[in-house]
Amino acid sequence: DWSPDGKDLVFISNVSGFFDIYKINIESREIVRLTDSLSMDIAPSWSPDGLKILFSSNRYGTFDLFVMDSDGSNLTRLTDSEYHENYGSWSPQGSRIAYLSTERGEVHLFVMNADGSRKRIVTR
């Protein structure tokens, strides 16, 4: 995913043996590893202001949504359930996040505030 300023890309790689999130500066080609876990960290997405990166990880069993600062610090878990919750996308203002969840036995679209509060189902 491109950063809002177009200077960086976030991507996943399993070069370490595990799927982690990396950031590359397009001009300098400097690569920075942002996550380092024994799980799958996937589907990174920049916040509209470029300060945060949203991603999915199964580091606690099922996939949940996490957010971190764009340098990989301040990791925060946004969802915590027995269902797979992944493939998040920021609203244009960065105040909400849309994501997929297997809650209710099928894949449904949910929306929540960017801090993980006020989760609600969108599709029935």
Biggest sheet descriptor: 4 strands, antiparallel
State the helical fraction: under 10%
Count of individual helical segments: 0
Give the radius of gyration.
Answer: 14 Å
Strand content: over 45%
Shape by Cα distribution: globular
Q: Quickly give the structural class.
A: mainly beta
Q: First CA to last CA: what distance?
A: 29 Å
Strands, total number: 11
Commentary on this structure:
The protein has 124 residues and is an all-beta fold. The chain is 0% helix and 48% strand. The chain is built from no helices and 11 strands. It has strands at residues 8-13, 20-25, 31-33, 41-46, 52-60, 62-69, 76-77, 85-90, 96-101, 108-113, 120-121. Strands 4-5-6-7 form a 4-stranded antiparallel beta sheet, with no helix packed on it. It has a 4-stranded antiparallel beta sheet with strand order 8-9-10-11, with no helix packed on it. A 3-stranded antiparallel beta sheet has the order 1-2-3, with no helix packed on it. Strand 10 and strand 11 form a beta hairpin. It is globular and about 45 Å long. The chain starts with 7 loop residues before the first strand and ends with a strand.
Looking at this protein, list some descriptive labels.
124 residues, mainly beta, four-stranded antiparallel sheet, 11 strands
